[in-house]
Amino acid sequence: xxxxxxxxxxxxxxxxxxxxxxxxxxxxxxxxxxxxxxxxxxxxxxxxxxxxxxxxxxxxxxxxxxxxxxxxxxxxxxxxxxxxxxxxxxxxxxxxxxxxxxxxxxxxxxxxxxxxxxxxxxxxxxxxxxxxxxxxxxxxxxxxxxxxxxxxxxxxxxxxxxxxxxxxxxxxxxxxxxxxxxxxxxxxxxxxxxxxxxxxxxxxxxxxxxxxxxxxxxxxxxxxxxxxxxxxxxxxxxxxxxxxxxxxxxxxxxxxxxxxxxxxxxxxxxxxxxxxxxxxxxxxxxxxxxxxxxxxxxxxxxxxxxxxxxxxxxxxxxxxxxxxxxxxxxxxxxxxxxxxxxxxxxxxxxxxxxxxxxxxxxxxxxxxxxxxxxxxxxxxxxxxxxxxxxxxxxxxxxxxxxxxxxxxxxxxxxxxxxxxxxxxxxxxxxxxxxxxxxxxxxxxxxxxxxxxxxxxxxxxxxxxxxxxxxxxxxxxxxxxxxxxxxxxxxxxxxxxxxxxxxxx
Length: 504
Prior knowledge:
Blueprint (H helix, E strand, L loop, with lengths): L1 H34 L5 H4 L13 E6 L9 H24 L5 H4 L2 H16 L2 E17 L5 E17 L2 E19 L2 E14 L15 E4 L16 H13 L4 E7 L10 H16 L3 E8 L9 H15 L5 E8 L5 H4 L1 H18 L5 E5 L15 E5 L6 H11 L4 E6 L15 H17 L3 E4 L10 H4 L3 H7 L22
Parallel strand pairs: 1-2, 6-7, 6-13, 7-8, 8-9, 9-10, 10-11, 11-12, 12-13
Antiparallel strand pairs: 2-3, 3-4, 4-5
Helix pairs in contact: 6-7, 8-10
């Protein structure tokens, strides 16, 4: 019995040794293979940079002629990628007061200044949120051995917010010039010298766009069968065109549609979605309607480090549509003031301000607005937008006064961009409005609109069968109420309110 137990023990030990040796051999071979097959730097080095889009400021190479050897496109791309990654980890380091990734993108001497800055800020409980929005780079020198590069980065647009004990002390926009020396180490470009040569406040204000010809009489639009998923698999230009004819025949001249950030591919806009968006504007043009395009629907992350991703998204869409005959205006964001409490009012406003600048830099012709959820917030950034838009779902008895108050605060054109009343009255809201109540509401609303010569876009053409939980949540009384704001019911019958879809 004792002999048998010893044999079992010997066998177990021998099996364990074999497993351990096999694992060691596998690990060595895997490491050898890894180091010899284009390994992902983000995994090989201890850094927060991943091979996904995290930082995409606009980059323009002003010149690549230099005194050393000619530079090829592969080296130029490598320098650009590592240079921008260095900016990114520096932003992260100053925001978190940690050193993660710094040693991967800066040489020993260059990282010391960063470490000292982090230590000083940590001792005073100071953090810095920052980003760069554009770079204009000149290659000054590229060595014969391909180990050293010198660049000048001019007119770098920088945005910074400085906090102490989580309280904002400073917000600044700057335009700076940097002289940068990079060394090729371990196959990657690291910054050796990083010197700011000049810096000035960026006080450039976006130019206003003429809006004198505007006379918006419109409606917010989703197809009846696929609301809030207009550009998905059920997209149909024929359906949209038929709906646009109904809208045009009803005496309206414009529609407001929505582009969802995630649905359209975030920073890398999905070409198929973009094509469907263009087809929608084509349908509008065919029916002699103009379109207000609302960007960033269902987007709620205003963090500074994501601004460059957001800007590449907006830039792609604005470039694609800015010359379309049906385009009327850009709406930066739907009801951003609803994010003030959860995301921070200052964060939201700063994001909007910079996004206005971006859109106007790409399209200097079409007006820009923001779809505020109420009149109280509507004058925020009024000097930067071309149209002041507001939504109103409150008591109509107060609307006339609210309009007059807004007119006293701004001389910009006003648009009542959303208003309406649900005709839902049922189990979840037995005291809700009837179709007759809805018709009387729109009759009264159009009377106030006419009295004030106000531009308008009502909510919405159709009643809907389904409302995504992202719109009003899961509560059945909210979802059922949201289903019946339309002028046309689920059976495609015009409701009593359709008579007042537009003023004469």
